[in-house]
Amino acid sequence: MADYDLAIIGGGLNGVSIARDAAGRGLRVILLEQGDLGSAASAASPRLVHGDLAVLERRGFGRVRTALAERDIWLRIAPHLVRPMRFAIPAHSDERPPWLLRTGLWLYDRLASRSGLPGAATVDVTHHPLGNALKRPFGTAFEYSDCVADDSRLVIANAVDAAERGADIRTGARCVRADRSEIWRLAAIDRGRRQVITARALVNASGAWTASVAETILRLPPLRAGVMQISQIVVRRLFETDNVYVFQNSDRRLIFASPYERDFTLIGTVGHAFKGNPAAVSMAAADVAYLCDAANRYFRERVEPSDVIRTISGANLSLDPASRRAARDGAMTFDARRRKAPLLTIFGGDVTTSRLRAERAVSKLTPFYPMSPRWTAQAPLPGGDFAWARFDAEVDRARERWRFLGEAEAQRLVGAYGSRLAAMLGDARDRADLGPAFGPALTGAEVRYLMTKEWARFPDDILWRRSKLGLTMTSAEHDALAAYMAKATPGGADNPGATRGGTVEPEPIRR
Ligand SMILES: Cc1cc2nc3c(=O)[nH]c(=O)nc-3n(C[C@H](O)[C@H](O)[C@H](O)COP(=O)(O)OP(=O)(O)OC[C@H]3O[C@@H](n4cnc5c(N)ncnc54)[C@H](O)[C@@H]3O)c2cc1C
C-alpha cells in the first residue's frame, strides 16, 4: 500500500492546480516543491486571463472560445484574484487596419457570448481619458473586455485549497530520486531531512527542470525539448486610467502595458530560447530596450532602460524552443505501462487554461482509481466566495468592519485575500491590534497569517510572491521583517509549512 495516491514534483501553477483538483476528487496527494510555491515560471506570466487575440488572429477559434469560457470560470471562482478590465488597442497607421481590428473584436465578443462583460467599442481618444497617455497622432482606439490576474496569488490560492482538501503541500522539499515499480518510491530532501515517500502515480510538473528531472531523477530517456524564457519590465505608473493598453509592435507582436500594484506599470512580454540554470534566469539589456521601444511608439512619456524598477523573468520547457507559442501552449504526456505506476508529465501552458489543464490531467488517472467527478469549475478558490461584480462592495464592507483601513489598502487586501481577510484581521479595532508595521502597508498580522496559512518562510516569499510589497519597501523595513520572521516560530500548530505528518517516515537513502 502506497502512502499517497498521487505525488507531484513542482509547486508552480501546473503542480498546485493538479494537487487541488486531485485532492478534491478524493485522492491522497503530496506535492513537493524545492523552493517556494510559484517561485519560477508561474510568477512571470503576462498576468492575463483572456481568449488571446494572437490566437484569434491565427484562426484558433475553438481555442479562443475555450479560453474565454475559462475566463468566465475564473471570474466566478476567483473574483478577488481575476479582475475584469477594459483593454485598449490604439489604431496605428503602419499596423493592422482598423476594419480588421473591429472585425476581430466583434468576433471575440461573439466567442465569449455568455461573459456578461461589456462588448468592444470604438473610442475617439482625442476626447477620452484613454488618449491622455498616448502620443498625439493617435486618434482612435478599440476597447474590449478581458481580465488581469494575480498569477502568484493564484498559485497560493490553489495550494491552500488543495491543503484544505487534504493534500500534503511541502515547500523546501526537493525530489532527488524516483524509482518506479508498481508504485513510485520517491526520495526527497525535505528541509534538510531525507525522506522516502511512496505513491501510486507521479506527476512531473517541474517546469524548466522537467527534462532534467526526467533524465536524472526518473532516469528516463532525454526529452526532445528546449527551454524558453519570458520577460517583462516594471516602471513607474505611466497612465492614470484603469485599463490595459495593447500595443501593436512593428514585428506584429502585441505588447501589453497594465496597471501594476497601483503605482506602477507592467510592460511585456518578450521571449526567446534560454540556456543555463532556470533558477537564475535574468533579462538581457536588449530585451529591456525592446520593451521600452515598444512603449515609446505609443506613450507620450518616454520609458528608458534606466527607468526600469524591476525586471521579471521566468523559464519553462518548450517542445519548440524557437517558438514562444509552444511554451504558452504547454504540453502533457501520459505514460501508463503494464505493471508500472503511471507517470504524467506536464509543462508550460498559460494561466487562463491552467484549471482545465489540471482537470484533464487528473482525469487521465480515472482508470486507475475510483474518484469523484470534476468539480473545480464550480467551487470558489479560498476567499473567492462572492460575485465578481461585488468586488467594490466587498472593499466597502471591509472598510466598514475595519474602520482603520484606507481605500487603497482595503483594495489591496480584498484583492489578495477576498473573504479570507476576516481570518487575518479578526476583531482588530485599530492598527495597534495588528502588531508591528513593516512600512506603511505590511503589518505583523499579515506576516503571521502568511507564515501560518500560506507557507511563507522568508521575506521574499511575502514581498514578491504573496504580495508585491517589495516594490515599495525600504531596506531597513526589509531587515526588520527578516528579523521578525526569523523570530516567529514557523512550527506553530496551524502552520502549513510545519505539517510533516501522514505516513511518511524519515529513512536513510541508499544510492
Ligand atoms: C516562454 C514562456 C511563455 C509564457 N507565455 C505565457 C502566456 O502567454 N500566458 C500565460 O498565462 N503564461 C505564460 N507563461 C507562464 C506560464 O504561466 C507558466 O509557464 C505556467 O504557470 C506553468 O508553470 P509550471 O507550473 O509548468 O512551471 P513553474 O512555475 O516553473 O513550476 C515548476 C516548479 O517545479 C519546481 N521544481 C523543479 N525541480 C524540482 C524538484 N526536483 N523537486 C521539487 N520541485 C522542483 C521548481 O522550483 C518550480 O517552482 C509563459 C512562460 C514562459 C517561460
Summarize the structure in short:
With 511 residues, the protein is of the alpha+beta class. The chain has 3 domains: 4-42 and 153-224 and 326-363, FAD/NAD(P)-binding domain (3-Layer(bba) Sandwich), CATH 3.50.50.60; 81-147 and 226-323, D-Amino Acid Oxidase, Chain A, domain 2; 388-495, Alpha-glycerophosphate oxidase, cap domain (Helicase, Ruva Protein, domain 3). Helix content is 31%, strand content 25%.
Q: What do these coordinates show?
A:
The longest helix has 17 residues. The radius of gyration is 23 Å and the shape is globular. The strands form three sheets. Strands 1, 2, 7, 8, 9, 10, 16, 17 and 20 form a nine-stranded mixed β-sheet that branches. Strands 3, 4, 5, 6, 11, 12, 13, 14 and 15 form a nine-stranded mixed β-sheet that branches. With 511 residues, the protein is of the alpha+beta class. The C terminus is likely disordered. The protein has 15 helices and 20 strands. It folds into three domains: 149 residues, FAD/NAD(P)-binding domain; 165 residues, D-Amino Acid Oxidase, Chain A, domain 2; 108 residues, Alpha-glycerophosphate oxidase, cap domain (Helicase, Ruva Protein, domain 3, Orthogonal Bundle). Flavin-adenine dinucleotide binds next to helix 1, strand 2, strand 8, strand 11 and strand 15.
